[in-house]
Amino acid sequence: MLKYNFDWSIVTSGKYFEWLVSGLKVTLELSVVGIVCAFILGLLIAVLRMSHFRPVRWIATAYLEFFRNTPLLVQIFFWYFGSYKVLPTVVNDWLNSTNFEFAAAAIALTIYTSAFIAEDIRSGILSIPKEQMEAARSAGFSYLRSMQYIILPQAVRITVPPLVNQFLNLAKNSSLAMSIGVMELTYQARQVESYTFKGFEAFTAATVVYLVLSVIITALMDLYNKKVLNPHRA
Amino acid sequence: MEEALNFQVIIDNLTYFMIGRYPNGPLGGLGLTMYLAVVSCVLSFFGGLILGLLSLSRHAIIRHPVNLIINAVRGIPLLMVIFWMYFLLPAMMGKTVPEATTVIMGLTIFTSAYMSQIVRAGIQGIPKGQTEAAISTGLKPWQAMLYIILPQGLRNMIPSFVNQFVSLIKDTSLAFIVGVSELTHVGTQINNRTMAYPTEIFIFIAGVYFVLCFAFTSFSRWLEGRLTWRKSI
Fold first, then answer.
1. Is the per-residue pLDDT at B47 higher than 60?
2. Do A77 and B80 touch (CB under 8 A)?
3. What is the pTM of this model?
4. Chain A interface, best mutation among B81, B82, B83, B209, by max A CB count within 10 A
5. Transmembrane segments in this chain: where (chain A) (predicted)?
């Protein structure tokens, strides 16, 4: 340890720097694709979970409990290695024609995260007083329209901070995609280590990138809390 | 290609899934998963307690660095923490470190940072009047914390600790990456050996984790309900 020669230049310029940058790009792509799909899916699950029809509610709850209580890594392996037996041929063909590693990781991350997001959205919706729905209904809106125009716009506003949190979790969780060969940031850091034996520099670079990402997003969230959620508080 | 699922492969390898080569060889499979989770959980309970108390210290010189470390660990992926351990531990100890130890250290450091937030919230949830009352009866601040605040706070933290334990069980699957033969690793091994049953194997493994984690999640909800009920009377 004491005789270690630091060589930061390998991670600040040249080929290995480009590897890390391309890794960051893949991490961001996975995170953005994941959060958008997970939000849509999570919203759907949250609405189903509040359905008045009991079987629908059960299915949504089962979905939620199952995907929250199994490791993401196992889910990634399932989609990557095992999904071909249960998916229809059309879907398999389509998946094989794309970048399959990326697709499998994106599907796993989306489904895993959607289960957490669904609960965040649900508690957001439940925090809107019941009278709002009653007022909307008596003003002549249908259930769906009341949701669309009255409840959801308010609920989404207060669900933004937990959603941003989920985005950060997703960005960190996307590191697991390296296990199936997706060349994201952690994968590239490890590649740099095995090519140069400069593990300290490579891992420091990746760690700093993750930290900068989370600091930026946390700062944006604080700003949102101040400007949007509590605009009148000094 | 839709194919019929054949779970015979699970039945054939059931003991290997559950305990690895034990007792003729090292413990593996679900047994090792539980071992990793329990050891890391006990260690990170104390780690989290210490970090949580330090992060509430009256002295800024203690509080700020501790908070910085906690937030830094929370800001990076667990996988990164495990790689750091994998890389740093041998260099610091001057000898090779077993993979299982590496993973336990990684899990402990990572989970301690999250546990410290639970401890912090639990302590802050106890009304300030309690500390003031304790100090005015002649207790020193650390005695007030140890004898008055912590016992009450810890009780309220139990459900969150159980939830954290569930996360730990799930997180032990990352031990796969450094080659520790816990449940997920055993699954990929059997998958590599048999080749034809990945779907069955990963559905089974997911099912095992699910049963385990769901049991603890339900337990934590039950505890939470009981604690709220006790507070309400």
1. yes
2. no
3. 0.92
4. B83
5. 26-48, 60-82, 102-118, 200-221
